[in-house]
Inverse folding.
């Protein structure tokens, strides 16, 4: 249950971040690689930094997992499950490559989730 509560908190944090730019800049702290810019994230992955890449993948997959945990949308959950971790990670990184390099990974991940729904 503690895990589910933590995931719920992360999902609500993401929703709050996306809902209000003022809130995002003033009150929300994004822990882990979600707060890093896409430019930084892509550079770490492309330079072969395995430790950072593992942490980035964990952050992305955790955020996607939270997105499935509290939605009453079986078709979305089925899509995510069918895609699998590698495809989800690759899809999110591809969106990061297309985004402005200053865009936080969290924003791009959230947008990718919204597009997948």
């Amino acid at each position: 249950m503690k895990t589910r509560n933590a995931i719920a908190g992360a999902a609500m944090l993401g929703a709050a971040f996306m809902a209000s730019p003022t809130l995002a800049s003033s009150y929300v702290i994004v822990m882990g690689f979600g707060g890093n810019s896409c430019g930084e994230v892509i550079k770490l992955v492309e330079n072969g930094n395995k430790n950072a890449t593992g942490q980035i993948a964990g952050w992305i997959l955790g955020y996607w997992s939270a997105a499935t945990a509290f939605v009453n949308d079986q078709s979305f959950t089925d899509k995510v499950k069918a895609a699998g971790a590698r495809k989800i990670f690759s899809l999110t990184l591809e969106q990061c490559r297309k985004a402005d390099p200053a865009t936080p990974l969290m924003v791009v991940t959230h947008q990718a989730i919204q597009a997948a729904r």
About this structure: The chain has a mean pLDDT of 82. Residues 2-116 form one domain. The first helix runs from residue 2 to 19. The helical segments are 2-19, 21-26, 38-46, 50-69, 74-98, 105-116.
